[in-house]
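hey so i finally got around to running both of the ones u sent me last week. sorry it took forever, my laptop kept dying halfway thru and i had to restart like 3 times lol. anyway pasting them below in the order u listed, first the sequence line then the structure token line for each. didnt double check formatting much so if smth looks off just lmk and ill redo it

first one:
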Amino acid sequence: MSLRRIAHLTLLVLALLTGLAGYYAAQLRFNYNFNDFYPAGDPDLEYFQGYTQRFGNDNDYLLLGLEAAPGQTVFAPQFLAQVDSLTRLARRLPRVVSVTSPTTLTNPVVEGFGFYNLPYLHPAEPARRAADSTLIFQTPGLVGNVFSPDARAVALVIQAAPDLKKPAGDSLLAALRQGLARAGLPAERAHFAGRLVAQSVFVDRLQWELVVFMSLSVLLVTGLLWATFRTWWGVVLPLVVVLGAILWGLGVMGAFGVSIDLMTALLPLMLFVVGMSDTIHIISRYVSELGYGAGKKDALRITIKESGFGSGLSALTTSIGFFTLMTSTIRPIHNFGLFTGVAVLLAFFLSFTLLPAMLVLLNKPALREPRCHGHDWDGVLGRLFTGVLRRRQLIYTLSTLILVASVGLATRVHINSSLLDDLSKNDPVRKDFAFFDAKFAGVRPFELELKPGGRRTIYDPAVLREIEQIEYYLGTTYGLRFAASPATLVRAVRKSLHGGELAEYRLPTDSAELKNITARLTQFRKRPEFRALVLPDGSAGRLTGRMEDVGSIRADILNTNLRHYLRTQLDTTVLRTRLTGSSNLIDKNNENLTLNMIQGMAIDILMVTLIVLALFRSWRMTVVVLIPNLLPILVVAGVMGLAGVNMKVSTSIIFTIAFGIAVDDTIHFISKLRLTLGHEPNVFKAVRRTYLLAGKAVIVTSMILVGGFCTLLFSSFDGTFYVGLLIGLTLLFGVVAELTLLPLLILGVYRGRQPVLVPPVPDAVGAGN
């Protein structure tokens, strides 16, 4: 069978597979599930899932903050009428379980056999405004939760149906915004916060940014390819191959039913810039052989033979760099590592099937400037190589100084994260969340499960005293601004039994009174706030609250101190507790970030070590290869420390990915060196020859990689921004180390000695060698 028939058959098969991939890729959907960022397989996650079945989820609420008009307080009759109108609308909306609003708050009072709910506010009676405001500011649980301390804003706490997905959540948010307009409340004085808000914003922006990043990358890469090869096929063929690989990668995701989330949204861009490497190495070498006078068939044969080995090794190391992310317990990172690693291997497959087939069918290209004495780049790279040798001592000195400074600065990097820390501080959504931190109790949920010891119930006097003691600690030392617990219920019922007097808002002093209150609690058990705090049989309770988003570092200190307090000051025979909740699980991710990063880097380094040992049977050569790739990683860690960039979920992947990608060019370099040493006994000449052969592809691919990642600088997500910036810097520093430090180290290790190659390589470097 002729070569052209094989090429036609190859294109037909690949076209059919591409159509199948396109079908599955069309099934993909965008999603941002907050729960996916919990540490999978963690015992605390399993415990929290059982906890939510008993008491409900702690992040199904939606906060709607409303500011009074300038110069007014929230007690202005017109403002309260607007709030009440919006409250009534919210209560009628589908998927709304309950609404806590200042206009519907009541002070329950029990008199004789009667039960009354007395409103806290009387907007129609201006004379009672002073008394109403005084009562509200004296009643525990209202200020900071529903009313701001400065009386300039109120909050509606809307409890939504459990685990609302984006379409239903967006409908609820849209209905509330329409309600604001109908009530005459300006949008600029309204603030939303909660999981539904984050879910809506993240998914919408993911869709938009995916289009923007890909468009910018295509334009950038097209320009760089044209500037490099100056031929239409040097631009079109790499784009066809890489875009096909992206479609195949998305098709695999779709076939496995995986959605596009905050992490996997990076897959197309990541594959676009990473997958371009093999095509550029192939076309660069193909053009080189043509430039040295080889015929089309010979040039393609030599290119595939020599580039295939290095490209295969580099694809393996790059994919492993992504596969190591599967060690993460965070599902989005796990999926991103798995499917991007698979897509890298698919890109390699297409580079050595689709691209050669298209080159076979393409007529022998007429080079724009026929060359009789080698490459355009040979002179530039030759002068660069000579300059590196002449400045050997300076390069070693600068590398040492940069290494020392980077290690010192890297110690300033801390693991810290907060809710919505992937949004910039000036983002309107993050400002809305900060509004609740400043004006109300905050947006960070707090959860503590309460289990009476022995045969006690949650209403046992000793149990209630322990709960009240915990509440006092949380309010005075921990920083909890709003809390509700079974003790809250008992105090509230006692107050209602004593005519609603604030002085009676306390726990009963004797068992007989407590028994009477417990019996009366049956009258309130249908109220949602009661069902959410105590199990019907009184066997367990919940202490829930909200606080300022203090960040994971501060939260870890607070939780450590809280656990110590509970362990040393609490009578565990009376009451047992366990800290849980969504915030606790998100914070726990930070405990695994360093371990996962170290595991990923260790696997990467191990694989590179094995590859170099297999090629050169030399530990010295292994060190030589690792140094130019680890140095940029340390430099970027130093940049993070200098700039005050924290390590968090989104930035923890940077080092593993950057090392896996950066080592790609090194693998290409040493594989070409190995081939060159097969027929060139002089190490210096072999290194120089390799420098000239690989230098162009190394520079071009690095420019494309850096440029591609720099498109992420336009992201509105801080995590994505730093992924682009820091990986781009790593690759930039990496190519500098590749072209300066690597050849010097190789020459230094093999000065006067010939390396051992395994296995022997046939003499085939190409025409003109």
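and the second one:
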Amino acid sequence: MRLVIIGAVAAGTSAAAKARRNNENAEIVIYDKDQFISYSGCGMPYYIGGEVASADELTPRDPVFFKNKYNVDIFTRHEVLSINSQEKVLEIKNLSTGEIFTDTYDKLILATGARAAVPPIKGVENKRVFTLRNIGYMNKIKAYINTDHPKSAAIIGTGFIGLEVCENLKELGIEVTLIEQLPHVTPSLDNDMAVYVKSYLEEKGIVVLTGTSANEITETSVILSDGSVIKADMVLLATGVRPNNELALAAGIKLGTTRAIKVDEKMRTNLEDIYACGDCTEQYHAVTGKPVYRPLGSTANKMGRIAGDNATGGNLEFRGILGTGIFKIIDMVVAQTGLSEREAIEQGYEIVVCHNIKPNKPEYMGGKEMVIKGIADKADGRLLGVQIVGFEGVDKRIDVFITAITFKAKVEDLFHLDLAYAPPFSTTKDPVMYTGMILDNAIHKNRPLITAQELDNLIESGEKYELIDARAASDYERSHIETSENIPHATMRAAAQKMDKDIVVVTYCNKGVTGNAAQNILINNGYKRVYNLSGGHKHYSKLHLN
């Protein structure tokens, strides 16, 4: 059997390695347009910033390695021009010599990847304007920095790559301006979590402009849609990627609703004996079961393995993704998985949302606060999504949540997890457990939450309500929500005998715990509608100060 793979890097090489493990006698060939066939794309920002000393560390494997270890023939600088699925013939061009020739296959795997999305900005074709998609682009950026010594940079887009490059340019002493078309940074987050990222970026001296876009790029600046001018000696476009689907489309391979190649759970396309995997393909969301396009190296590796297995007689199946992501910006860590609040509402879920502010370990062990946003299905208590912003222990918690969502856990299950505890690593009840407890109380124990936005809506609605600040008087005097009344928790039982039990009552404290205690007192005294402010005054004030 002759297996031909178009494209290398994460998906293509994973497919080849798995195929070889299954079948020692198969002829396995990879054609790739690029010079580099296996590299760590996620490590590229750190080479630009100097944290990774050598580019060789990001490109550990070459065609000789694959030939020696897997007996796979890899031809770099070779572009597949067309696929004849009826005859099983490929037309290929050697980009180094210009020679065009044909090859045949019994099974074919497309791993053609994706390319940077370049928005139609005037002046975008400029030697000072860069994208970061492969090692070649990385080397161009590094060379420009080393030779031209830019003092300022504009980054258009605030996803993972944009912020990771931002950090590394800042480390080099380059002044950075971030430009984001959406109302908030980090599009994968909801606004009430993105505000923490924006605040931190500004605290670190990075200029953040949201709700605006670039209209023109000149030799020295970026002109924005509102006419303002941003000084920039270099510009990075971090505006996402698009699947390389042209070859597939010309061959009659169907695309999905996201315009990436449509595959089934075994990575099969609609054409017999042709598979596809990696950034050129559409995935499906493990929560909703609906098509999504979330290209990541980890997913590409997984899909490549599945494609290589099935092309050589195996039966591995793809189980979907949660759209998980994590990145670091200076010292802050940002992570998310599953559905955002926005996405959950769009999908028709009636949801409950909580904001849990807890340290990753006891303060006496140097614990640092993280903000965990949990989104759950009100109907059955299933956990739908989580977002975390913090400084330590974020990766540990997000992976627990990922596992829980993958196995369709409900919020009440989180409390019962036997998580590892010792003071150097966690609090006695881990923040994961607290998140489950808060959501479980809201869904099943008649301890409803109200978000900051919902409280603002209530205040503006004209409906009669009572807003109670349950903190000590000294905390209230320092800062409080404008329409609130200070009834400290210690005096709540006496006050409960005098207030109107039929109007809406909202309690709050600094982060939520004492607010919940006050809520309990009122509910146990016969109050009908009592809400605790999610994330407390600390979260509410963060949203209203930014």
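quick thing i noticed on the 2nd:
Residues 129-239 form a domain with the FAD/NAD(P)-binding domain fold (CATH 3.50.50.60).
anyway thats it, ttyl
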